[in-house]
Amino acid sequence: MDAQEFRARGREMVDYVADYLETIGTRTPLPSVLPGYLRELIPDEAPLNGESWEEVKKDIDRVIMPGVTHWHSPQFHAYFPTSSSYPAILGDMLSDGIGCIGFTWVTSPACTELEVSMMDWLAKMLNLPQEFLFSGGGKGGGVIQGTASEATLVALLSARTTMINKLKKDNPQMTQGQIVDKLVAYCSEEAHSSVVRASLIGMVQMKSLPTDDKGSLRGSELESAIIKDKEQGLIPFFLCATVGTTSTCGTDNLLELGPICECNKHDIWMHVDAAYAGSAFICPEFRPLLDGVEHSMSFNFNPHKWLQVTFDCSALWVKDSGLVSGAFELNPVYLNHDNQGQAMPDYRHWQIPLGRRFRSLKLWFVLRMFGVTGLQEQIRKDVSLAHQFEDLVKSDDRFEIVRPVTFGLVCFRLKGTNEINETLTKKINDDRRIHLTPSKVKDTFFLRFAVCATKTQVSDVKFAWTVIQELTDSLLSSPK
């Protein structure tokens, strides 16, 4: 494919993507294929000779689309949103076209410097403490990770290295292995599974602490666990506090947890994971839920969930970038350059992989074209739709709301056993007109209705509720 054909085929693909997104509401959100369907539709080996674009293009609808789960459908209400917008898609197109691998400043100065500016833009939109900004005058700054899972792992490994270095300095006779064996980290019982996974990779103990009836980890639980563990000779070093848990959008009490973690108390690295909910804090009415973040050492949220930026774009800030780079920094000769260590970071020291895409382009495009007010309007619209769904649930005496609705998630269930709710969930997803996912907290199984797609409107919420009521009627009227 030469440049001339690329121009023509590129226009065709832009039209295809636009048509797909504009008509996505007509597609069933969950595919009906069975595992292994695709292997039957393509050859066992790559072609010996290249095929034409026309041959490739016709297989998009034959091979790919039957197996696509349509995350951007207004009938998709599972998990959490994954953003999509035309400005973000254009940013990804340009990033792919430029094709730089911006692991150091010199490998593409614009890649690094735009990211520095965008992370400060975002931090100011969220009203984060000045210590997290490159322009804050301290050691802090932000970096775009791939996912919140990566961000949590980076924070945990940075905290681990920081504690190991401190203890070895104070106790030179201790080996690294002796220290790691005693390290213990904490999270709430409702924290995302990636938090526990980070501890597995980091080879440290992770203890899940109980939450209150609102899904919040409180200071008393943390302090009690720390004191008990210290009495047993363990070394508490890390807390992952969550704002907007995956199951229920619960919020850990940062104002209570933060002072317990600070160096003048127990000297624990507090990381705040706000993967989904973080976007909402650009709205002043939600920002108080983040109060206490000033006590944390690191903070993360995913613009690719709710801020119109396509996957992947996960924003991580740290108060002391030296503590992060200290965990990952290596300087082989082939990566050195004349300007390292000066004003701009070499982001390879801030992440797990070496290579990185020019992800700040799409963030720049989105922030400029939507503006803060445009993004606030989208978030407020989605929260309003969630409350409208909540009202529909409350209007039916057969159902109950499991947790208060704060953001764009409604947790609800049929009054009765876990088993009947499991059956209802299966009926809904087997029906395939809408798609949602369940969860289970404190032995209570419930359904999650998330407002996911940018294009979701009141009519889509009412349609979903009609489907749920219809399938509930069928379930409750069927012979036992």
From TrEMBL:
EC class: lyase
UniProt GO BP: amino acid metabolic process; carboxylic acid metabolic process; catecholamine biosynthetic process; serotonin biosynthetic process
Positions where N6-(pyridoxal phosphate)lysine occurs in the chain: K305
InterPro entries reported for this sequence: Aromatic_deC, PyrdxlP-dep_de-COase, PyrdxlP-dep_Trfase, PyrdxlP-dep_Trfase_major, PyrdxlP-dep_Trfase_small, Pyridoxal-P_BS
Cofactor needs: pyridoxal 5'-phosphate
Alphabetical UniProt keywords: Catecholamine biosynthesis, Decarboxylase, Lyase, Pyridoxal phosphate
Molecular function terms, GO-annotated: aromatic-L-amino-acid decarboxylase activity; pyridoxal phosphate binding
Any one of the GO CC terms: cytoplasm
EC number: 4.1.1.28
PROSITE patterns, per database record: DDC_GAD_HDC_YDC (PS00392)
Gene3D superfamilies: Aspartate Aminotransferase, domain 1, dopa decarboxylase, N-terminal domain, Type I PLP-dependent aspartate aminotransferase-like (Major domain)
Assembly mode: Homodimer.
PANTHER family attached to this UniProt entry: AROMATIC-L-AMINO-ACID DECARBOXYLASE, GROUP II PYRIDOXAL-5-PHOSPHATE DECARBOXYLASE
Family statement drawn from the similarity comment of this UniProt entry: Belongs to the group II decarboxylase family.
Official protein name in the record: Aromatic-L-amino-acid decarboxylase
Organism: Lymnaea stagnalis
